[in-house]
Design a protein that fits this description.
The chain is of the alpha+beta class. Helices cover about 20% and strands about 20% of the residues. It has a 3-stranded antiparallel β-sheet with strand order 1-2-3, covered by helices on one side.
């Protein structure tokens, strides 16, 4: 098993991938979509709390590439 697994969070329409080892904690995701990205909770990504369009837009702003969308 990989030391830095990629976690997947899906709402059935869009799947967010998170690679913790790439995260630089810029908090862009939390600032842009706090109802989805909740770092104090486990799991910390709640894709059911927003639209797929907003999630894709926010993930695109991740400067490190730790968050991505599964195609």
């Amino acid at each position: 098993m990989s030391e830095n697994p990629i976690k997947e969070y899906t709402n059935g329409e869009v799947t967010v991938l998170w690679e913790a080892s790439k995260c630089i904690h810029s908090a862009n995701c939390v600032k842009n979509l706090p109802e989805v990205f909740k770092p104090k909770e486990k799991p910390w990504v709640h894709v059911e709390n927003s639209t797929s369009e907003k999630i894709v837009s926010t993930v695109a702003k991740c400067p490190s590439g730790a968050l991505s969308i599964k195609k």
